[in-house]
Amino acid sequence: MAPLTPYTYIQCPCSDESSPDADDDDRTFDPRAARSNYSLYGLEYLLYCEDCHQIRCPRCVAEEIVTYYCPSCLFEVPSSNIKSEGNRCTRSCFQCPICIGPLAVNSLEAQPDQTHLAAPDTPSASHGGPYILTCSYCNWSSTETGIKFDKPNSIYSQLAKLYNGGEHRLTPKEHKERRKEALQASAVSGDPLPDQTLDVETHFAALKAFYQSQLADANASTTGLSSLEGLGFASPASLSRIMSIYTGGSLHDKRAKSRIGTMREALTSDEGLQLASLDESSSISALRLHHASTIPPTTYQHQTPHLGALPPHTGGARFPSHLRPIPCLLRTKRSKRCPLCRHIISKPEAKVSTTRFRIRLVAGSYVPSISILPLNIPQPSPDGALAPLVPAQFLLKFLNPIFEPVRVTLATPSKTPGRFGAKVTVLCPEFEIDANTDVWEDALKDGVAGKDVAAGARVRRGTVGEDGQQQPEVGKIWERGRNWVSIVVEVVPASLRLDLLAATGKFAGGEGVDAGPLREDEDVLEIPMFVRVEWDADTGGDDVGSGVGKDQKEAKEKRELAYWCVLGLGRVRQ
Amino acid sequence: MSRRPPRGEYIETDTGNKVARKATLVGTQNIMLGGKTVIQPEVMIRGDLNTAVSIGRYCFLSRGCCLRPPGRMYKGAFTYMPLRMVDHVFVGPGSIVQAASIGSHVHIGARVAIGEFAIIKDYVRILDGTVVPPNMVIPSFSIVAGQPARIIGEVPEGGHDAFELRDLYKTVGNNPQPAV
Ligand SMILES: [Zn+2]
Ligand SMILES: [Zn+2]
Ligand SMILES: [Zn+2]
Ligand SMILES: [Zn+2]
């Protein structure tokens, strides 16, 4: 089993379900509870609201999109284009439909041609079309689906005009004209107009046009009745709601309330009706052929080919020849707001090329970080697992990031929750950490000096034992530095033996002892710990109106931050 | 011959580079080090391909990794192009880098292969065993993994400092200091 690196996760207050009146101090946070997975975060994932003085996590912040960009060409896409053209790059960025690797545009002529090497250097102009998309990871190429391009740029719009096999795809306008001609022809001959098969884009466009005209008709005949029926199936209101989801809100209609009734569905392929082809024998035989070369006939003959679960971007591709290059999905830069006071707590610069932030209130600059170091681990197994029933000692190092000294109070349950509760003793649950000063000096010195001064200022508080080793002592911190303190926590891991568990359960007279097999990660020793941090903060400067500068000391305000966290110490040997 | 102090494992230059004696740097005239860069034993840098390999400040090349400029057919001849690496770039043990450019604050894990002409922007974390295909562009603040590589997450706002390599720099060399 992989050795476990010690970790600290913090619980965001947004997941605290307790009602404000039930202030039950005995309540212990259980890191193994199913819901805990959703509320625990590493410190680096947490933000901090300076107005609410509270931790904020990715789950509770409100996000706002600052910039849309393509991750491949790093081109910024205006949000107006998102509505009209969708959320994929419309330049030349594609992913391989086989392996999702990036596709490169290559000239067919410039394919590795050994004669070229010997030939005199020809200018790049000779690298003319046709061009193809090739995957540099799995070597898939658009020629496998019969697609070539005339120009090396704006591949997206070129691809939109091509079917696999290279056949020219009709634009909606051309499509309409063809249809009109066919209609006239059928009117002359008297034959019924044949249904046609539509590709995905044409299908969507036809349906969209049809529903838009339906909505326009419904609007024309407005009646003033109640809006409740508007939520039914095939009603104008639900239709316009669905349309606004799929077409980017452009169809949102404030008069939606006033429309009732039902509308008919599409009836012809012009309107977007596409009859499902239930006769799949051709697909099945093609699949058989496709597999025949690789699979011995006996194995596949009795199996029905898998025909479901079609990849979304390929419009129902079942064969490699149906695959289409996948246009790159756009990414975003987002700013984040506090869910309560709506203040912005993180805001990146809008430009894609910069990594700077205008606002970035990370919890790490307000909340002490806790690092875990093994101090005295008796009989560890080769993979670092802890021995059961033997006391092990760990150092917890608290680093104060703020410019005020802080008082820290810790609380842990004496026995960790779960079937295999470990005994926990924090030797020094209350201590002070000095302010974080001289950081600038520290940063500027860059070299050796800054850290050494801090290191030199280390003061050990425990008594020194006979062997010259420092001995941990109850009520005393282990070591103190410029803006950090380390303390000792002692744990006695429980035995993971299930027979013992059942025996002790019987002995205690408990009936509901769960002696089931060891569950995943149940051997990980996790300690829930409640951390309370108190400090005196400067309030001066915040209120301009109040009597300025009367007494500096009075301008201090008591602050408190309290939260649950979980310390993962290691695995217990089985 | 005068008496010399015992040779350390590393050659430490005036600009603070720490280059292991057991590292293989070929074509040193094409290799530019920005200073305070650590090159561990068994690292190979290919400066012999008629193009530059430039490395910024506080880069850390772990044991057994290889930096090799990317090459392609250009105007009828196979040509190597420069490999550029900005500051605070960590390259994990056994990784092979053939990127065109790597930004600053980039962490490349162990046994990673970075294909030719890949472009990696700033604050990118590439997890162990990733294969970045040739020509791939990885935007800033991406966490990347898989074969082929795909973006599996974003570097959180509070995770920027973790890319700093100043402290790691101090822990290696002929007079290493303990990690803080
Ligand atoms: Zn939250
Ligand atoms: Zn793009
Ligand atoms: Zn591919
Ligand atoms: Zn707030």
User: Hey, roughly how much beta strand do the residues of chain B contain?
Assistant: 35-45%
Strand order of the largest sheet of chain A: 2-1-25-24-16-18
So, the CATH homologous superfamily of chain B? Hexapeptide repeat proteins
Helical run tally of chain A: 11
Question: Which assembly state applies to the chains in this document?
Answer: heterodimer
Largest protein interface, residues of each chain: A-B, 43 and 34 residues
| Proper CATH architecture of chain B | 3 Solenoid
InterPro entries (chain A): DCTN4
Subcellular location (chain A): Cytoplasm, Cytoskeleton, Microtubule organizing center, Centrosome; Cytoplasm, Cytoskeleton, Stress fiber; Cytoplasm, Myofibril
Pfam families (chain A): Dynactin_p62
Protein name (chain A): Dynactin subunit 4
Task: Give the key terms.
heterodimer, A: 574 residues, alpha+beta, 6-stranded antiparallel β-sheet, 11 helices, 23% strand, elongated, B: 180 residues, mainly beta, UDP N-Acetylglucosamine Acyltransferase, domain 1, 9-stranded mixed β-sheet, 6-stranded parallel β-sheet, 23 strands, globular
Short description:
Chain A: Belongs to the dynactin subunit 4 family. The complex is a heterodimer of chains A (574) and B (180). Chain A is an alpha+beta fold and 574 residues long.
Overview of this protein structure:
Chain A: Belongs to the dynactin subunit 4 family. Chain A: Its main location: cytoplasm. Chain A: One of its GO terms (cellular component) is stress fiber. The complex is a heterodimer of chains A (574) and B (180). Chain A has three domains: 7-45 and 368-571, no CATH class; 88-109 and 127-191 and 294-329, no CATH class; 196-274, no CATH class. Chain A is 19% helix and 23% strand. Chain A has helices at residues 79-85, 114-118, 155-160, 172-189, 200-220, 236-246, 281-292, 297-300, 439-445, 449-456, 498-507; strands at residues 7-11, 40-41, 47-49, 54-56, 62-69, 76-77, 94-95, 103-107, 131-135, 326-327, 331-337, 344-348, 357-360, 369-376, 392-399, 406-411, 423-426, 430-433, 459-460, 463-464, 470-471, 479-480, 484-492, 524-538, 556-571. Chain A has a six-stranded antiparallel sheet with strand order 2-1-25-24-16-18, with no helix packed on it. In chain A, strands 14, 15, 17, 19, 22 and 23 form a six-stranded antiparallel sheet that branches. In chain A, strands 6-5-11-12-13 form a five-stranded antiparallel sheet. In chain A, a hairpin with a 4-residue loop joins strand 3 (47-49) and strand 4 (54-56). Chain A is elongated, with a radius of gyration of 34 Å. The termini of chain A are close together. By secondary structure, chain B is mainly β. Chain B has a single domain (18-41, 48-170), classed as UDP N-Acetylglucosamine Acyltransferase, domain 1 (3 Solenoid). Helix content of chain B is 3%, strand content 36%. Chain B contains one helix and 23 strands. Chain B has one helix spanning 166-170; strands at residues 10-12, 18-20, 24-26, 31-33, 38-39, 44-46, 53-55, 60-61, 66-67, 71-74, 77-80, 83-85, 89-91, 96-97, 101-102, 106-108, 113-114, 119-120, 124-126, 131-132, 137-138, 142-145, 150-154. In chain B, strands 1-2-5-8-13-16-19-22-23 form a nine-stranded mixed sheet, with no helix packed on it. Chain B has a six-stranded parallel sheet with strand order 3-6-9-14-17-20, with no helix packed on it. In chain B, strands 4-7-12-15-18-21 form a six-stranded parallel sheet, with no helix packed on it. The chains are: A alpha+beta (574), B mainly beta (180). The interface between A and B is large, with 43 and 34 residues. The structure holds zinc ion (4 copies). One zinc ion binds at residues 96, 98-99, 101, 135, 137-138, 140 of chain A.
